[in-house]
Amino acid sequence: MFQHKLSLLISMPTHFRRYAFTYCVIIAATAALVFPTLFVSIGSFQLKQLIIPLLQLIMFGMGTTIGAKDFAQVLKAPRKVMIGLVCQLTIMPLIGYGIASVFGFTPEVAAGIILVGCSPSGLASNVMAYLAKANVPLSVTITTLATLLAPLSTPLLMSKLGSAYINVDAVAMLWDIVKMVILPVVSGLLINTFFPTVVSRLGKFLPVISMAAIAIIIVVIIAAGRDTFLTVGALLLLAVFLHNVLGYALGFYAAKLCRLNEADCRTIAIEVGMQNAGLASGLAMQMGKAATVGLVAGVFGIVMNMSGSILSSWWGSKKP
């Protein structure tokens, strides 16, 4: 059942041999750095205005893959789900805060690192869990619950950890997440529940559209933040890489300490290490800081897809 549902998400990476999406994102991001004006505006229209609608489209697609049976996983394995959620809500925010404190970035770039850490996991984690032979139902459940908790968890964590770097309006952030995430997800869920034939028709197109939307968001953010990236590029790549990889490692070993099996440990590692960079980009856009706070999310999205592809391919070659 879950593999059938997840086929909506994995069709693109599987069809193009796993790494094609990552390569496309890298090529497009490189083009955005070399020719930024092509990705900043078309005439008088600023392309960064597309970020919010594209994110809503992605979240709507996520909603169409969710059904009532997905939430039953909470009742079937409450301990595993709780361990995953606690790891998701603690490890990445704290790592982000530590990296922001140590690396000495400008306040807005530092805040971007923390914001990525305070975001929930995203759709990519479900795809990578499938390819890594991990526990796909657990991955979907953690992603879903972390996303639904985001209107409360992300503003709260960001106000506690990021307010030293930028002004954080927790109430405004809560409402932004409701508009960008909750309403589209719930809309997709309702359509999946009451109009399944519509979803079956959309299923052929939504995965490709979602992947394209993610790539466009990353490219637009990289182009908008090109000048900042050229100033702190190497150091930012190192910081983002550490944030991502430490998330995998600490998530995996935290699950090990809780005596979960290998497949569940892989799942929680991926759920912790892979964040919803699109949501972080959208929130940065709403703050008016797409070129600084949002830049981190764009770079994280590239690094995350590269590392996630490699890790899931390695794990996928080994039985849990």
Summarize the structure.
This protein is mainly alpha-helical. It contains 15 helices and two strands. Helix 3 packs antiparallel against helix 11, helix 5 crosses helix 8 and helix 5 crosses helix 12.
How would you describe the overall organization of this protein?
- Strands 1-2 form a two-stranded antiparallel sheet.
- With 320 residues, it is mainly alpha-helical.
- Strand 1 and strand 2 (45-46) form a beta hairpin.
- The protein contains 15 helices and 2 strands.
- Helix content is 79%, strand content 1%.
- The protein is globular and about 50 Å long.
- The relative contact order is 0.19.
Write the layout of secondary structure elements.
Blueprint: H1 2-15, H2 20-34, E1 41-42, E2 45-46, H3 51-63, H4 68-76, H5 78-103, H6 107-118, H7 123-131, H8 136-161, H9 170-194, H10 196-202, H11 206-224, H12 226-257, H13 262-273, H14 277-287, H15 293-316
Antiparallel strand pairs: 1-2
